[in-house]
Design a protein that fits this description.
641 residues, 61% helix, 31 helices, 4% strand, six-stranded mixed sheet, mainly alpha
């Protein structure tokens, strides 16, 4: 007999219980449900026509059809409790071994998240099991876990099942491979798919693209995409998301344009992926275009799109616009709260971030998670609020029982290091519940640079070299600390080590996007077509700054050269060139957004504050550490970065 997933009782459920549990669609009568004998002759009253057929003695065809229809209804409505009652009735009625009904029961339990029950039934069914049954189980494991079981079941299907997978088998298996980052298993599936007629199926190919993307093999994902002859919106969306998830937002946006050019109408999933890419690339004009397109297509009222727009505007520096969208959300879920809090935090608006966090806890009754506290601690870090950061860190553990991750520790070490509290930072690292990574030691090293703590900087660098022996930036930072302290011989020794190991310093680069085109600048760059005008604008601004009392600070130049040469090096920094180009290329009052691949130096920070006051412009700099909002001679970081 088919194994039961219910209690050990062999008696059938009471009709009254079934009446409460079974959906109305499965009862073919308009009169109230009454007791009818089960397993014996029907009573003379009420008449048989008014009695639910599944409670009557089993007859070969009608009972089977009614049971099948009722189970189908339970599967469609995910009604597991009535399904369990009907399962008990099948067992006592002798229909428990019926393959068609048992298959529907497996589907019901799997669809409702009771995978272990589905597996118990599956294992008790006689061979051969059809491909639908295997697919139901594989899909359930891929969705609810354990995902390793999805891959194991797929392999068992091939070896023991004697069943050929179809186009409903491969997508969930690939989904499991992607979730586990199991590239070897994913390639194994790909090799088998390539030998079948399902190799051209759009859902299978979308699954392959997603699997390679999640495993970090974007170029292989693109190869699969290029080899897809019929590309529907699912395949396009998978490839756009692949670029976005792997830090290649420019290609994601270009592919989105290519999709529209080929006449494939973007869906809301397309827009969300493309908007996320625009946020990552700080491509505000592209994000605004997508925003407008979404409204024209009628997606503007959907909270999913609004949440992605909120995140994009926050990352692009338009925090006020992000807050307006946040307030327009019909339902503010945890993701939207986190996006807004983290948006405030990354831009140095600590007061707003903490006020929103307080509102989230008191008014919204939304339970914060580890990402929420990353945003809160980041806000404290960017504002130099070491005391508050420690309090929120303790709150996270004591009140919400959230286990600190390396991101939480990094924020706390960073703010302690910035504040010169090296003893507390070192003690925290010693008692961390996770292994310190390069982010932890990098945060400590950065604090050592600010406060010229050479001894601790050497320890931090030693740990960084063990973790990242090929990262030239670590050596450069220690060399700069030595130079800042006047230890030129030690600085030269570190740079010699870099040379001997073949390590090269990252070239500083800044870029600004105007009228849909990105303009990049290097230090001392003279390659831009408007180079003469750019340097003329810089010279004009320097004259006005000198009148205001500005004197160049050459301490960021860590080379043992004359002061005049140091001043020339500083004045040609890439962010200054990008800002000058933006000033001469846009109307007065236009906000400028410049992105830089390394940290803004101290002298440039002073200069940009002065430029924002002289030119009466808001200038946003997004460097490797944070956002800086310059307006009226002040910066949002309050000189803490």
């Amino acid at each position: 007999m088919l194994p039961s997933v219910l209690s050990k009782s062999t008696t059938s459920p009471s009709p009254a219980h079934l009446r409460r549990l079974l959906p109305a669609s499965s009862i073919h009568t308009s009169t109230p449900l009454r007791h009818a004998p089960i397993g014996g002759a029907p009573s003379p009253s009420p008449p048989p026509a008014q009695t639910p057929s599944f409670l009557l003695p089993p007859s070969p065809s009608p009972s089977h059809n009614h049971y099948a229809a009722t189970l189908r209804s339970c599967v469609l409505s995910r009604a597991v409790r009535p399904g369990r009652q009907l399962h008990a009735r099948l067992i006592v009625s002798g229909l428990g071994l019926d393959p068609a009904l048992a298959t529907r029961l497996v589907d019901l339990y799997a669809s409702c998240g009771h995978v272990s029950h589905a597996r118990l039934l599956f294992d008790g069914m006689p061979q051969p099991r059809n491909v639908f049954l295997w697919n139901v189980l594989i899909r359930a494991y891929a969705r609810d876990g354990p995902r390793e079981a999805a891959i194991e079941t797929y392999r068992a299907m091939l070896v023991h099942g004697g069943v050929e997978p179809d186009n409903f088998t491969y997508p969930p298996v690939l989904k499991a491979c992607a979730a586990l980052l199991d590239l070897a298993a994913g390639r194994e599936v790909h090799e088998r798919v390539a030998r079948t007629r399902w190799a051209a199926d759009v859902f299978v190919r979308a699954g392959l693209v997603d699997m390679y993307a999640k495993c970090g093999c974007v170029d292989e994902a693109r190869t699969v995409f290029n080899g897809t002859t019929t590309r529907d919106v699912v395949v396009w969306n998978s490839m756009i998301a692949a670029y976005g998830q792997n830090g290649r937002p420019v290609e994601a946006l270009a592919l989105c344009r290519g999709m529209a050019a080929e006449g494939v109408a973007p869906t809301i999933a397309t827009l969300i992926s493309a908007i996320s890419a625009a946020a990552y690339a700080a491509a505000l004009p592209r994000g605004r275009e997508l925003h407008g397109y979404g409204w024209r297509r009628g997606f503007g009222s959907q909270d999913k799109l609004r949440t992605s727009l909120l995140d994009m505007y926050a990352k692009s520096g338009l925090v006020k616009v992000a807050r307006i969208i946040f307030e327009q959300l019909v339902h503010r879920d945890l993701i939207s709260w986190n996006s807004m809090i983290c948006g405030y935090g990354m831009h140095g608006h600590a007061d707003e971030a903490l006020a929103l966090f307080s509102k989230m806890r008191s008014e919204a009754q939304v339970m914060p998670d580890n990402i929420t506290f990353v945003g809160v601690l980041s806000a404290c870090n960017h504002a130099g609020m070491a005391k508050e950061a420690k309090e929120f860190f303790d709150l996270m553990i004591s009140e919400y029982s959230i286990k600190p991750t390396v991101q939480h520790y990094t924020c706390l070490v960073d703010v302690l290091g910035h504040s010169g509290k090296f003893k507390e930072a070192s003690d925290l690292i010693d008692v961390m519940l996770v292994e310190p990574d390069s982010g932890i030691w990098g945060a400590l090293l950065n604090g050592c640079k600010i406060h010229k703590n050479v001894e601790l900087a050497e320890l931090a660098l030693q740990k960084l070299i063990e973790l990242e022996p090929e990262d030239a930036g670590n050596y450069v930072l220690l060399s700069n600390i030595y130079a800042q302290s006047g230890k030129w011989e030690e600085a030269a020794r570190v740079r010699k080590v870099m040379t001997n190991r073949g390590l090269k310093k990252m070239i500083a680069c800044s870029w600004i996007e105007l009228k849909g085109k990105s303009h990049g600048f290097l230090v001392g760059d003279a390659s831009h077509p408007m180079s003469d005008e750019i340097y003329a604008e810089l010279e004009r601004l320097e004259g006005l700054m000198s009148q205001a009392g500005y004197v160049p600070d050459t301490t960021p130049v860590f080379h043992n050269v004359e002061d005049d040469e140091k001043r020339n090096m500083v004045r040609g920094h890439s962010e200054r060139l990008a800002i000058a180009f933006g000033l001469i290329s846009t109307p007065p009052g236009t906000k400028l957004l410049v992105t830089k691949n390394i940290r803004v130096c101290e002298d440039c920070h002073v200069v940009i504050k002065l430029i924002s006051q002289i030119a009466q412009r808001e200038i946003i700099i997004r460097d490797v550490n944070r956002y800086h909002h310059f307006l009226n001679g002040e910066c949002s970081c309050k000189d803490h970065w």
